[in-house]
Write a structure and sequence with these properties.
single chain, about 400 residues, alpha/beta, 7-stranded parallel β-sheet, 13 strands, globular, binds alpha-D-glucopyranose
């Protein structure tokens, strides 16, 4: 079987980490298959895929296409597809990229084109060879992105199967595309060897340029890209509302990684917010970490605070696998991952007072942290093992090839 994967980013965000797990899982289970990857820019996705032995072509996006993205409505971002002034330029860039991609796919001639990310869904629909099957792997909600939804509806006839990263995203895809497409829910997997309760631990204080925390200080962190809806503001507000004891130190772990216009906060903006809240001495900014598992293991509590429903929430699954006490927003696909009071504490979306209360409760109760952490790592090991990926994707691909 020949499968070509199209990634809409060369850097590592959740959708790209998920793609790497797919590549690793299929490589192990189907060593005879020919897997290849096309990415629109260099980055860790590209180097890690190559390290797995996956032939990878970088076909760079023109800048206008790299910056293009439609934020979900209500996410408070102004930029996006709606900037009419650049439409002709954009249409030209997309058409010329589509032609180059079509030539590349015609040469590779895969049986399956697996497109990861909304831009690649459309480009894949234009560029795929007519006799290969097209899979759209949907990692985000489409419904709240009106222009994207309209375009995907228009090209849905060219898509043979949709993979959604949660039931919640599958429902959203169904509400946009109807029953015309065959939709499967496949949860993301986690590399359980790397995301394990024991292993290397990062010195977060050193990364943040802080003196080492006093013994007994409870460490709580938000691990995320700087997308505006990841809830950094709520996290900082919650830290400001904590009582003085026990001592808690916060960490913002991550950086703005996507190039999409206006979608990301800047480090300066977050530092300013911490200053305005009077907590600069209690919250460290580590920047992007290449090995998030070592950062998670350095934390007592991992917080997920997205202000929009989280399509899946890979960081939640990874932190659970690392045996951490997790606080996660109970909305969207994230609500399918956690079991409130058993594997995590469920947070009301957008409520920084509730977040402060959850952090304070866990900070004061090491036994509760240990109980949640243990149940979380057992649940992650059972539900997010990468072997599940191959066991679901192999029959899906085979079915598509025999239908063609
Ligand atoms: C996207 C989603 C996130 C999910 C990841 C992997 O980044 O926003 O919720 O975990 O894709 O599917």
């Amino acid at each position: 079987m020949k499968v070509t994967y199209l990634s809409q980013a060369g850097r590592l965000g959740g959708a790209e980490i998920s793609l790497l797990e797919i590549l690793a899982s299929l490589k192990r289970s189907e060593p005879g298959w020919e897997l290849s990857l096309v990415a629109p820019g260099d980055g860790l996705l590209v180097s890690r895929a190559r390290a797995l032995g996956i032939p990878t072509t970088v076909l760079p996006f023109p800048a206008v296409l790299a910056r293009l993205g439609e934020p979900p409505q209500g996410a408070g971002v102004r930029a996006g597809l709606g900037r009419l002034g650049r439409l002709p330029h954009l249409a030209w860039a997309a058409a010329s990229y589509g032609r180059r991609l079509r030539r590349l796919l015609a040469t590779a001639h895969p049986q399956i084109v697996h497109a990861n990310g909304l831009k690649m869904h459309l480009l894949g629909a234009w560029a795929r060879p007519l006799d290969s099957a097209l899979v759209w792997h949907v990692h985000d909600y489409i419904g709240p992105r009106r222009t994207t939804a309209r375009l995907l509806r228009r090209y849905a006839g060219r898509c043979d199967a949709v993979v959604a990263n949660s039931r919640s995203v599958a429902d959203d895809v169904r509400s946009v595309l109807g029953d015309r497409v065959n939709i499967s829910t496949i949860y993301n997997a986690v590399d359980l060897r790397r995301f394990a309760p024991t292993g290397p631990v990062l010195d977060l204080d050193a990364l943040a340029g802080f003196p080492r925390a006093e013994p007994g200080t409870v460490k709580v962190g938000l691990v995320a890209t700087f997308a505006r809806w990841k809830g950094h503001g709520r996290f900082l507000e919650a830290l400001a509302k904590l009582p003085g004891t026990p001592a808690v130190r916060g960490y913002v772990i991550g950086a703005p990684i996507y190039e999409t216009d206006g979608s990301q906060r800047s480090l300066e903006e977050l530092r300013r917010l911490a200053r305005d809240l009077g907590i600069s001495a209690r919250v460290g900014f580590t920047g992007f970490v290449e090995k998030p598992a070592s950062a998670m293991r350095a934390l007592d509590i991992v917080v997920h605070a997205s202000t929009e429903p989280e399509p899946f929430g890979l960081v939640i699954a990874e932190s659970m696998a690392c045996g951490r006490a997790v606080i996660a927003v109970q909305a969207g696909g994230a609500a399918e991952i956690i079991d409130d009071e058993v594997t995590a504490l469920a947070l009301r979306p957008g409520d920084s007072s509730h977040l402060a209360a959850c952090i304070a409760r866990l900070a004061a109760d090491p036994a509760l942290r240990a109980r949640l952490a243990q149940a979380a790592s057992a649940s992650a090991a059972a539900r997010f093992d990468s072997r599940h990926l191959a066991s679901k994707l192999v029959p899906l691909y085979r079915g598509l090839v025999s239908d063609n």
